[in-house]
Automatic annotation (TrEMBL):
<feature type="transmembrane region" description="Helical">
    <location>
        <begin position="15"/>
        <end position="48"/>
    </location>
</feature>
<dbReference type="GO" id="GO:0016020">
    <property type="term" value="C:membrane"/>
</dbReference>
<feature type="transmembrane region" description="Helical">
    <location>
        <begin position="303"/>
        <end position="329"/>
    </location>
</feature>
<feature type="transmembrane region" description="Helical">
    <location>
        <begin position="264"/>
        <end position="283"/>
    </location>
</feature>
<feature type="transmembrane region" description="Helical">
    <location>
        <begin position="69"/>
        <end position="87"/>
    </location>
</feature>
<feature type="transmembrane region" description="Helical">
    <location>
        <begin position="228"/>
        <end position="257"/>
    </location>
</feature>
<keyword id="KW-0812">Transmembrane</keyword>
<dbReference type="Pfam" id="PF01594">
    <property type="entry name" value="AI-2E_transport"/>
</dbReference>
<feature type="transmembrane region" description="Helical">
    <location>
        <begin position="143"/>
        <end position="165"/>
    </location>
</feature>
<keyword id="KW-1133">Transmembrane helix</keyword>
<dbReference type="InterPro" id="IPR002549">
    <property type="entry name" value="AI-2E-like"/>
</dbReference>
<feature type="transmembrane region" description="Helical">
    <location>
        <begin position="197"/>
        <end position="222"/>
    </location>
</feature>
<comment type="similarity">
    <text>Belongs to the autoinducer-2 exporter (AI-2E) (TC 2.A.86) family.</text>
</comment>
<protein>
    <recommendedName>
        <fullName>AI-2E family transporter</fullName>
    </recommendedName>
</protein>
<keyword id="KW-0472">Membrane</keyword>
């Protein structure tokens, strides 16, 4: 082997150290996998409360423990309880899996029979009907089983969050110094993550609750079955882009018409298409556009992945993880391909470095 082709000792040491770090990180994550949702939740709430925490501690001169406890209580009331309420409501209503699946099967058969009798179109064969029933049963069981440990996740999340909020400057300084990246890329990750978390932790739940409440009014007005359960399902479904709440209220409207409540079913359909749809567009194009423009595919695949990993809380954490992965790809390019970075971005990065030096 030529001398130029030999691997330098420095590179060998770098690779060896990287492998050791990777193995240790894998061991830590594997053995503490139960607390991953808690850590993600703590980071999410920390980002949301960060500005107010600095304001209370550094400008209002509040004691760190007092500021931390007040912000934790506020986040519990404003952010966590509405989401937990929807999850708990679904558990209460769908807790009896056998009774729920029996009702769902009747509901599905009624819709299928009505469409077939009116149009002659066999929307689902018997084989596909059985597959759909089985898939829904497995998904609901998995989602609910992942939601049963929500209380434990919330308790450990707030335990971790307290130490983040108590000494925020120290916490951020440790993160920045530990990151094996340029200061400019650390700033880029921080700013992007702040926007993503604000959009997912505040924007998406607000849109979901808004649509759910507006739909609930319609469910009561037109006498739909189980309006409170439909409210929870509509709020959860509205987090899915494109189809959204329609995957709940359209089958309900068809079911009501098939039951003979034609006027109420058509009225509910018109109400949901116009009022609920308008609410969705209004909230998405005002609130979410101001926070962060998250691509719909990120949300779709993030929700699917998040529900499988974290249960109901994955509705928020899943899209964040997908977006964070794409962000790391961008950071990798910035880190190792400086020649492709535009001059204005380089100037912005240098400005970020100066600002970080002043902060830390």
């Amino acid at each position: 082997m030529n001398k130029d082709q030999q691997i330098s000792n420095v590179k060998i040491k770098q690779v060896s150290l990287f492998v050791i770090i990777l193995v240790l990180a894998a061991l830590i994550c594997f053995n503490l996998a139960l607390f991953i949702p808690s850590v993600l939740g703590a980071i999410t709430i920390y980002v949301v409360c960060r500005k107010y925490n600095f304001y209370l501690q550094e400008q209002k001169k509040w004691k760190p423990w007092l500021s931390s406890l007040v912000l934790m209580l506020a986040s519990l009331i404003i952010l966590i309880l509405p989401i937990y309420f929807i999850g708990d409501l679904l558990i209460e209503k769908l807790g009896n899996a056998q009774a729920y699946m029996a009702k769902f099967n009747i509901f599905l058969e009624k819709i299928h029979s009505y469409i077939y009798s009116k149009t002659g179109f066999d929307i689902l064969s018997k084989e596909n009907m059985d597959k759909l029933k089985s898939s829904v049963g497995q998904f609901s069981t998995k989602a609910l089983s992942g939601t049963f440990n929500t209380l434990t996740v919330i308790m450990s999340m707030y335990f971790i969050l307290y130490f983040m909020l108590d000494k925020p400057r120290l916490f951020e300084r440790i993160l920045v110094s530990s990151a094996p990246l340029k200061r400019s890329n650390v700033s880029l990750i921080g700013e992007k993550m702040r926007k993503l978390i604000m959009a997912n932790a505040i924007g998406i739940p607000v849109v979901a609750l808004g649509q759910g409440i507006v739909a609930l009014i319609g469910y009561f007005i037109f006498g739909s079955p189980s309006p409170v359960l439909l409210f929870a399902l509509t709020a959860a479904a509205s987090m899915v882009p494109v189809v959204g709440a329609a995957i709940v209220y359209i089958p309900v409207c068809i079911f009501m018409i098939a039951e003979g409540n034609t006027g109420a079913g058509l009225g509910l359909a018109a109400y949901c298409i116009v009022i609920v749809g308008l609410t969705d567009n209004l909230l998405r194009f005002t609130l979410l556009k101001k926070l962060e423009n998250v691509h719909p595919l990120n949300t779709v695949f993030g929700i699917i992945m998040g529900m499988n990993i974290f249960g109901f809380m994955g509705l928020i954490f899943g899209p964040i993880m997908i977006s964070f992965t794409l962000l790391l790809i961008q950071v990798y390019r910035n880190e190792f391909a400086d020649e492709d970075v535009p001059p204005d971005l380089k100037l912005a990065n240098e400005a970020d470095e100066v600002e970080n030096k002043l902060i830390y």
